[in-house]
Automatic annotation (TrEMBL):
Protein's job: Catalyzes the oxidation of erythronate-4-phosphate to 3-hydroxy-2-oxo-4-phosphonooxybutanoate.
Protein name: Erythronate-4-phosphate dehydrogenase
Residue ranges occupied by any D-isomer specific 2-hydroxyacid dehydrogenase catalytic domain in the UniProt entry: 25-257
Catalytic reactions on record: 4-phospho-D-erythronate + NAD(+) = (R)-3-hydroxy-2-oxo-4-phosphooxybutanoate + NADH + H(+)
UniProt subcellular location: Cytoplasm
Native source organism of the sequence: Vreelandella vilamensis
Amino acid sequence: MKLVVDANIPAADACFGGFGEVIKRPGREISAEHLRDADALITRSVTPVNASLLAESAVRFVGTCTIGIDHVDTHYLAEHDIAFASAPGCNAEAVVDYVLASLLTLAERQGWRLLDRCVGIVGVGNVGSRLQARLQTLGLDVLACDPPRAEREGESGFTSLETLIERCDVLCLHTPLVSTGPHATQHLLDAERINELAPGTVVLNAGRGDCIDGLALRSRLAGQNDLTAVLDVWENEPAIDAALHDLATLATPHIAGYSLDGKLRGSLMIHQALAAHVNETSELSLNAICPSPALASMTLQQALPSEDALRLCARAVYDVRRDHERLTREAYALGVAKGFDACRVNYPLRREFSTLSVRLKGDAHTLAPVLSAAGFRVE
Ligand SMILES: NC(=O)c1ccc[n+]([C@@H]2O[C@H](COP(=O)([O-])OP(=O)(O)OC[C@H]3O[C@@H](n4cnc5c(N)ncnc54)[C@H](O)[C@@H]3O)[C@@H](O)[C@H]2O)c1
Ligand SMILES: O=C(O)[C@H](O)[C@H](O)COP(=O)(O)O
């Protein structure tokens, strides 16, 4: 079997080498020519998978090691009997870490307490529901908006987007990009909704860039400068709007889910799907491909204020300010589009909060509930 694999997929040899010859290509460069005699295509989210890529190819299996599937024409695959697999939930924990790291950073800079905020979550799937669980266990007031789920499961526990806009200090978008239908998310936050946001609202987007009207957000930020934007995803990636980038308080290059753990889970899930497709059994496990973390444990021996303790532990594992600064630096050095992709391709090794064991000594024991609610292991 010949497999064409995005070169940005970690453990590609361990996960796909056993099936045949692995040809690695940068995801944005994979073309019909590369796939002419390929049997399988393994992507991340930057390769548009559609008729023009596959019509002349022998590909019978497509796997994307990502949660999002908006880059894949699944109807085309189904019509042409091409098997398809994605990796639901693979990097959801990493995105939640990103949100917590970002909000803790903003709270410190702007002088508020995260634990006192009301957070609205739009899109309560794999990412949103994990975020909801962590925030609620931390004691925050959380409102959830997910009309497709409300339709299936009943309204209880769900709130309209209008109510979130009216009541929340922080609005977190975790919706997929859906262009048509009753629950389309393209420009879900459009000019009208952006203008309804109360001054001081934090808008965080770690879903897909097109879920927010970027021009409208830019114009509110440039005109009134009374919102805080945390943007990980953008319209027109990698050629993002440089002016919007400059106006965002935290601007990162679509890396919210970029923990090593999350990426490897994605690779492993597609390995397992491909094994099932070719009727093979697989013994490969995450432990076999995922190294131990460089920082496995740390000790706290004083009862710091809880948010200071959270920030300390969060930054020990993942400091979102570095991703913001790297994007600004690389965009300046290489231009926006090249800088954006350079940050993603050369992404530093990042682990998830759950890989850190926090030892608590003396009166630091009082921090156990808050640290474990945030996702750290507590000893
Ligand atoms: N920034 C990143 O690195 C990163 C990482 C992972 C996922 N993502 C993006 O985040 C999206 C969500 O991930 P997930 O794993 O939670 O997906 P998911 O499919 O598990 O959940 C998405 C949820 O959004 C809801 N939804 C759909 N339309 C909606 C609408 N109009 N309004 C409100 N809710 C709506 C769905 O009902 C579902 O519950 C992915 O599709 C992907 O595009 C980004
Ligand atoms: O959909 C996903 O899983 C995430 O957006 C993921 O982080 C995308 O990764 P990329 O394709 O940008 O490497």
